[in-house]
Amino acid sequence: MIAGILDRLINLLKWPCVVLSVWALFPSSQACYEILIYSLDKTELLFPLFVGGFAYLVISRIVVGKKKQGWFSTLEHELTHALFALITFHKVNGIQTTASQGGVIEIQNGNNWLIIISPYIFPTFSFFLIILMVLVDAHNKWVTNFLLGCTVAYHLISTVHELHRHQTDLQETGFVFAALFLPGANLICYGTILAFAINGTGEMMSFIKNSLMIF
After folding, report:
1. For a FRET experiment, which of 52, 104, 160, 168 has its CA 20 to 30 Å from that of 117?
2. How does DSSP classify residue 90?
3. What is the structure's pLDDT at 71?
4. What is the distance between the alpha carbons of residues 139 and 133, in angstroms, rounded to a whole number?
5. Is 34 helix (H, G, I), strand (E, B) or coil?
6. What is the pLDDT of residues 112-133, one digit of tens each?
7. CA gap 96, 89 in Å, rounded
């Protein structure tokens, strides 16, 4: 019952969220710019982030080739669907993945556009890593930012491969919706990760607040 109510509410907010995402492009871009300018004096924090991203790019090209991420990318994609299904009180009955034929997730009690679009806006491994860092109170910024760089590069590459006209998720939400919603939503998510990498949870929360200051 709760899942059904949430589905109706989330689906009702589909196009208002598009307007919010488009409207948030300017403040979130400005907030990202301010973080980058601030980080120019803190290259010891920014450098490992880019090194991690570049390292993952090189290793992934060697291991899985230039045109695919392998079955693990499909698994992560479906796990993100599952995460947002659970957040919105749905039961996940099963997940099936393949390296070349995509994956399928079986969700009980309906569906909503947030579950469907979630893998294209939410870097799951990056945010799980952030939660882990906060829980263990990690202090080695070189290592943590290097790992964050790896996870961000992973999600960027996998998302690029998944954005095509044959993608059933995008067909279901609508390509117009995806084209309007994804840029702003992704900018906020990646900006949040950048803010955390530069100055921890305080900077992260400040970025989110500044990005959504649209009124």
Report:
1. 52
2. P
3. 67
4. 8
5. helix
6. 999 999 999 999 999 999 999 9
7. 21
d(CA 172, CA 80): 17
Residue 103 CA to chain centroid, in angstroms? 18
> Which of 105, 103, 104, 98 is closest to 70 using CA atoms?
98
Which pTM value belongs to this model?
A: 0.89
Q: Of 197, 202, 189, which Cα lies nearest the Cα of 43?
A: 197
Model pLDDT, residue 15: 95
Q: What is the mean pLDDT of each run of 10 residues along the chain (215 residues)?
A: 90 95 92 88 87 90 64 82 93 72 74 95 94 88 93 91 88 95 95 92 90 70
- Structure confidence at residue 86 (pLDDT): 93
Query: Which among 97, 92, 117 is positioned nearest to 168, based on CA atoms?
Result: 117
- What would the two tokens of residue 184 be? 């702003």
In the block, residue with structure tokens 């006209």: 165
C-alpha 152/C-alpha 149 separation (Å) is: 5
CA separation for the pair 117, 111 (Å, rounded) = 11
Q: In whole angstroms, what is the distance from residue 13 CA to residue 113 CA?
A: 10
Residue 71's nearest CA partner among 48, 49, 102, 44 is 102
State both tokens at 102. Answer: 């995509």
Question: Residue 11: which residues within 8 A CB-CB, separation 6 or more?
Answer: 112, 113
